[in-house]
């Protein structure tokens, strides 16, 4: 398993616009080998910024890296730079590999 996260600092008052961009985009992820899950997470509002993170789960780091080199990745990110005025700096990427964990169980 590999977890890829991007942290976004958004200008105050622009949260709804940022969220709509993510809701309305075609991520092209569902057809990508090794993809498991995606979440857009809203964090705490801090003075001068709203914090968000994207969180994707992959079967492996190699699957994630293959996605970043794929046509699906290029299509999903084609308009990414068009709304730069929403952001307080570039996104910050963080990648994580498991050390320990437990699986969810059905109730």
Structure description:
With 107 residues, the protein is an alpha+beta fold. The chain contains three helices and four strands. It has helices spanning 15-24, 61-68, 71-76, and strands at 2-10, 35-46, 49-58, 92-96. A four-stranded antiparallel β-sheet has the order 2-3-1-4. A hairpin with a 2-residue loop joins strand 2 and strand 3 (49-58). It is globular. The protein starts with a strand and ends in an 11-residue tail after the last strand. Pfam families: ABM. This is Heme-degrading monooxygenase HmoA. Residues 2-96 form the ABM domain.
Question: What is the structure about, briefly put?
Answer:
With 107 residues, the chain is α+β, with helices and mostly antiparallel strands. It is built from three helices and four strands; from the N terminus they run βαββααβ. A hairpin with a 2-residue loop joins strand 2 and strand 3.
Helix coverage percent: 10-25%
The number of helical segments is 3
> Which quaternary structure do these chains form?
single chain
**How many strands?**
4
Overall pLDDT level: 90
**What is the CATH-assigned architecture?**
2-Layer Sandwich
Strand order of the largest sheet: 2-3-1-4
Protein name: Heme-degrading monooxygenase HmoA
Keywords: Monooxygenase, Oxidoreductase
GO molecular function, one term: monooxygenase activity
Pfam families: ABM (PF03992)
């Amino acid at each position: 398993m590999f977890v890829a996260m991007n942290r976004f600092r958004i200008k105050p008052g622009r949260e709804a616009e940022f969220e709509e961009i993510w809701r309305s985009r075609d991520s092209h992820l569902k057809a990508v080998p090794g993809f498991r899950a995606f979440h857009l997470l809203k964090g705490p509002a801090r003075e001068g910024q709203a914090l968000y993170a994207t969180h994707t789960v992959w079967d492996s780091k190699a699957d994630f890296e293959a996605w970043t080199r794929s046509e699906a990745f290029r299509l999903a990110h084609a308009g990414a730079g068009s709304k730069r005025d929403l952001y307080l700096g570039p996104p910050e990427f963080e990648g994580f590999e498991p050390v320990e964990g437990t699986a969810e169980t059905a109730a």
